[in-house]
Amino acid sequence: MLHLGLASAAAWSRWLRDPVYADKERKWQKLVSQAPPAAPRIVFLGTSRVANGFAAGEAERRLRLVTGRATVVFNWGLPASGPVTQYLHFRRLISSGHRVDVLLLEVFPALVTEAGGMPVEAHFTDAIPWDSSELPLLEQYHFPVACWQHERRGLWIAPWWSLRWRLMGRLAPSWLPYHQRYDWSRGPDPWGWSPIIDLDPSAEQRSKRLERARREYEHRLRHWRTSPPAEKAIRDLLDLARQQHVTVLLIWMPEGPSFQRHYSPQARQKMERWLEKLAEEAEVRVADCRDWMAEEDFSDGHHLLPEGALRWTRRVAEEVLPSVMRE
Fold first, then answer.
1. Once rounded to an integer, what is the mean pLDDT over residues 179-198?
2. What local confidence, expressed as pLDDT, does residue 116 receive?
3. How far is it, in rounded angstroms, from Cα 196 to Cα 214?
4. Contacts of 139 (CB under 8 A, 6+ apart)
5. DSSP 8-state code for residue 249
6. Which residues are registered as beta bridge partners of 104?
7. What pLDDT is stored for residue 50 in this prediction?
């Protein structure tokens, strides 16, 4: 009975199957429930650069001062996510009846590429989090769905084993290494912001972080080209937003000079032309924030430290968002 009960619960409960999404959704619902019904709702979809770099609660406070209106602002940044994950999460929000008035969407060129014939983000997920109805979509975006069948069957054959990391992450997260806990989404503040904490500021450690960023991104950015499935996911997301009458702002997050050196001049031009064409075809605006912050505002050249995140958020809330909300 326990076996069948857990398997059945996992089939419908994202709290078990996809705790990262479930935690984000719960926090979003709580914010919405506490706000006036007519308050504009703003969601920022993106990667860990957004998760660490956008203090949504501060943006909410600044917007109230600037516009005189109550607003709900939420940070939906997810580490190692890309256009496909962002599209499916936005699709879930809409299908669950959540109203979104303004969508801020990060465009990170490094995750619009492919690796091994798949979008880069496909290497950072597994078979468990996805709804059955989402698998055909994931297959369209070249995720290894066929290779996941055994893992999916394991949810019914051996649910306690298949969900072991997620269950432990819920019940005793300190017993597991951080990357296996599936509990990081409980750590962000009520607005979804995950400020970087307890970071060793020594020159030696900073140098190691910069080197790691170089190893992860230099080749991909220097020889940049789009992945058709990843680009399709972005366009599908923008189409869905248009159908739902959601105002979209594409945002290129701040990057330090050390990170921007990874782009070749040719790749930079290709990215800028691609983004300009995408925005023109989708009839959306772009906020290019690459040069808004100094090198010392970053932990590794592209993830903002808490003070830098607050300053950048205030500028976005004061200079960018009011005009977007008026559209």
1. 83
2. 85
3. 20
4. 145, 146
5. E
6. 44, 249
7. 98
In this structure, how many other beta carbons lie within 10 angstroms of the beta carbon of residue 230? 23
CATH code 3.40.50.1110 for 2-325: yes
pLDDT 10s digits, 15-37 = 888 989 999 999 999 999 999 99
Domains of the chain, by residue range, sit at 2-325
Q: Is 111 strand, coil or helix?
A: helix
- The letter for the amino acid at 144 is P
Q: Which two tokens stand for residue 294?
A: 């100094």
Predicted confidence at residue 199, as pLDDT, reads: 74
Could you please report the per-residue DSSP string of 124-159?
G--STTS-GGGHHHHHHTT--GGGGHHHHHHHHHSH
- Residue with token string 């936005």: 90
d(CA 251, CA 75): 13
Instruction: Give 102's strand partners.
Output: 42, 247
For residue range 271-304, what is the model confidence (pLDDT) as tens digits?
999 999 999 999 999 999 999 999 999 999 999 9
